[in-house]
Amino acid sequence: MQNNALRLCELSLVEALFDPLPDVVFFVKDRDGRYLRVNQTLVRRSAQRSKQALLGRTSKEIFPGAMGEAFWVQDRSVISSGAAMQRHLELHLYADGGAGWCLTHKLPLRDEPCGERAGAVLGVVGISRDLGRPDQSHPVYGQIAELAQQIRSHYDQPLHLGDWARAAGLTLDRVEHLFQRIFHLSPREMLLQARLDAARRLLVEAPDLSVAAIAMQCGYSDQSAFTRQFKATTSLTPSQYRRLQQGQQPSGAPWRAAA
DNA sequence: AAGAGGAGACCCCGTTTCTG
DNA sequence: CAGAAACGGGGTCTCCTCTT
Domain HTH araC/xylS-type, which positions (predicted)? Predict the structure, then answer.
């Protein structure tokens, strides 16, 4: 426990570093998923008044509904496997109806590498960063932006990145590298973003369209793949999302949350 | 109709090596 | 040393089927 206390003390310094960053959520949780450290951005986004209001509580208590449940499942997975969750692209749906794309990273918090419980997982530490603006100052921004536009406007088709890269006079490797550098996303992640943005729009604006039909219109080969990806990204199935946007409680888990 | 899951194919991404 | 190229393993997607 001594080691644990020391580590948490060190983490308070990290917490202080993340406090002034409005686009990054920072948190540390114990083995039971209870918040031990949070930054101010998380306090704001969870609609809490202070850090104290979050400490000792789990994401399921702070974010009632599918999103809190999804955070909880992620935490359990990191803690039980001891494996990090890196670069998970997520759409966070806020209580005020807004939505924002984030990249989430979670690492297991381990005990000191010596002593009886050497290396034991004590909890999880993570950040969730809002997707930033593209780096427009990069010399080949124009070329890559054109490719990105192609991906966004052809979201209903399979990704033919190799062909598009060749047409632009670039290699596939170069395109992927530049996408990361400029957009902080891989081409496939950008395609996923475009498809799910379109799907969210159709779920709300075309209530008569079936989930399967929307899947087809958004470039998925079937409803199964669409539902799987939609749920992995938003924590909700397409029909739950549709009911939520129509102002109904989705069946299953109770839902009304902030990020 | 919608959701979930398994198998197999293929593509992406992280890492290493090469080059200027 | 930075950027480009190459490569192999893992992850993702499609197809298919079953369940609710």
Answer: 145-244
